[in-house]
């Protein structure tokens, strides 16, 4: 488990932009049941989360279409919440960071770590914006 002092600034990069921090399995379950579209970011301390995932996700929200609900959990910190979130990401294997888009509780788009790692934030944003255009 990562120390709070390390994790909080990384969480704030999303929560300061309107993402709901899901810290318990119940919060995850409730968030993913909501009608409409829900973006779920499994956040991480790794470099690709800092350099591409978080900035790309934030940039993706500058377009015309956006998810109705923005949510995040933190791998290595919100352990039980992340485990609950990953139950909803099947058939995809555990991956952090990763970004999932749900529509009416159904997983409709997924960016795994291997889609994020090595790509610039703009590519992450463009991928997500294409999903928003289709599902939001």
> SSE order in H/E notation?
HEHEHEHEEHH
Give the count of helical stretches. 6
Largest sheet: 5 strands, mixed
**What gap, in angstroms, lies between the N and C termini?**
35 Å
Number of strands: 5
The largest sheet has its strands arranged as: 1-3-2-4-5
Which regions have little confidence, pLDDT < 50, spanning 5+ residues? none
The shape is globular
- Helix percentage: 40-55%
Structural class by sheet pairing and helices: alpha/beta
Report the average pLDDT across residues: 97
Radius of gyration: 13 Å
**Strand content bin:** 15-25%
Structure write-up:
It comes from Chryseobacterium taihuense. Strands 1-3-2-4-5 form a five-stranded mixed beta sheet, sandwiched between helices. About 40% of the residues are buried. It has helices spanning about 5-15, 25-30, 45-60, 80-85, 115, 120-135; strands spanning about 20, 35-45, 70-75, 100-105, 105-110. The chain is built from six helices and five strands. The chain is of the alpha/beta class and about 140 residues long. Helix 2 runs parallel beside helix 4 and helix 3 crosses helix 6 (about 120-135).
Summarize the structure.
By secondary structure, the chain is an alpha/beta fold. The chain has helices spanning 4-15, 25-32, 47-60, 79-87, 113-116, 121-135; strands at residues 20-21, 37-43, 69-74, 98-103, 106-111. Belongs to the bacilliredoxin family.
Q: Key terms for this structure?
A:
136 residues, alpha/beta, five-stranded mixed β-sheet, Bacilliredoxin, YphP/YqiW family
